[in-house]
Amino acid sequence: MTRVAAVDCGTNSIRLLIHDSSAGEICREMTIVRLGEGVDATGRFHPDAITRTRDALATFVERMSSEGVEAVRMVATSATRDAANRDDFFDMTRELLGRIQPGAVAEVISGEEEAALSFRGATTDLDTARGPFCVIDLGGGSTEFIVGTGADILGAHSTQMGCVRITERFMRTDPPTEKETAAARDYIDAQIATAIGTVPLGQAATFVGCAGTFTTLSALAQGLESYDPEAIHCSEITFDDMRDVTATLRAQTAAQRLENPVMHAGRADVIGSGAAVVEQLMAAIERETSGTVSSFVISEKDILDGIVAGLLD
C-alpha cells in the first residue's frame, strides 16, 4: 500500500489529504459544509447539511479515484457524536467511500483518539527539543487538548467548545455584543478548567495551535496578502500580536472580516467566537505556566496527517 487518503469531517468543514509513501503529499483540500449547523439546539443533522456534506465528499471520492488511492480512513467528530439521525450520515459515507475501499465508512472517534491523532500530526515538523508540547485543536464543535513528548502522552481531553457551537449558543449578534461575549467567556473558562483538571498544561513548554481558527489568526497576524500555508506552518505568533488580531475580529461584522483576502467565506461568521476561545486560552496558559509561555506555534498539519501516518504504519 503506497497511496492512502484521510478524510476529517468536523462540525464546520470536511477535509481531504492524499499521501503517497514515496512521493509525499499529493493534495490537501477543504470545503466548508457546516455539518453541525443547528445540532447543538436540535440534536439532529439538518437535511441540507447532509446534502452539502454528500456533495463535498463525492468530489473528494472522485479525486481519490483519479489519484489511485488504495485505502481510505474517514473520521467524524463532534457534530456526529451528538446527532440523533447520524445513521443517515453513515449510510451516505458507506456508499461513497465504498467506491474506493469496500466496507469503508466514516468512524465516530472519541475525543481522546481525536486528540492523539491531532497531536501526532501537529508535531510532525516540530523540533522535539521544544517539548513537551501542548497541542490545541480548535474545531467547530469541540476543542481537544493533548500534552506529550513524542509517543509519551501525558494527558488528553476533549471539551465541548468550538467556534460554531459558541456562536450558536452565545455569540449570535453580528458582531457579538459585550453581554454575549461575557457569557461565552464564562462558558469557555469552565471548559478550559475541566481540561486543566485532566491535562497538565503547566508541564508544556510549547503550545501548538492547529485547525482553521488558529491558521487564519496566524495569517492575519502576519499581514499576509493571501492565505499561504507555507508561511503559516510552523509560524510563531506572540500572545500580544494574537490579542491585537482577536480583538479586531470580535469587533467586526462577518462582512468586514470577509474583506481580508485570507478569510475563508465559511469561517467569517464564526471566527469571532474562535477568537474569544483563543483569548481565554492565552490567559489560562499564562496562569498555568507562570508567564513563561507567551506565544503559539501554528501548525497546518493536524488530524489528517495523524490518520495518514496510522494508515502507512
Describe this structure in words.
- With 313 residues, this protein is of the alpha/beta class.
- Helix content is 45%, strand content 21%.
- It has 13 helices and eleven strands.
- It has helices at 39-42, 47-67, 78-82, 86-97, 111-122, 163-169, 178-196, 212-222, 229-232, 239-251, 254-258, 271-288, 303-312, and strands at residues 3-9, 13-20, 24-32, 71-76, 107-108, 133-138, 143-149, 152-159, 206-210, 235-238, 295-299.
- The strands form two sheets. The protein has a six-stranded mixed beta sheet. A five-stranded mixed beta sheet has the order 3-2-1-4-5, sandwiched between helices.
- α8 packs across α10.
- The radius of gyration is 18 Å and the shape is globular.
Query: Quick one: overall form?
Result: globular
Helix content: 40-55%
Output the number of helix runs: 13
What would the average pLDDT be, to the nearest integer? 93
What distance lies between the first and last C-alpha atoms, to the nearest angstrom?
Answer: 10 Å
Low-pLDDT residue spans = none
* Major sheet details: 6 strands, mixed
The count of β-strands is 11
Strand content: 15-25%
Strand order of the largest sheet: 8-7-6-9-11-10
Helical/strand content category: alpha/beta
Order of helices and strands: EEEHHEHHEHEEEHHEHHEHHHEH
Radius of gyration, in Å, reads 18 Å
Task: State the assembly state of the protein chains.
Answer: single chain
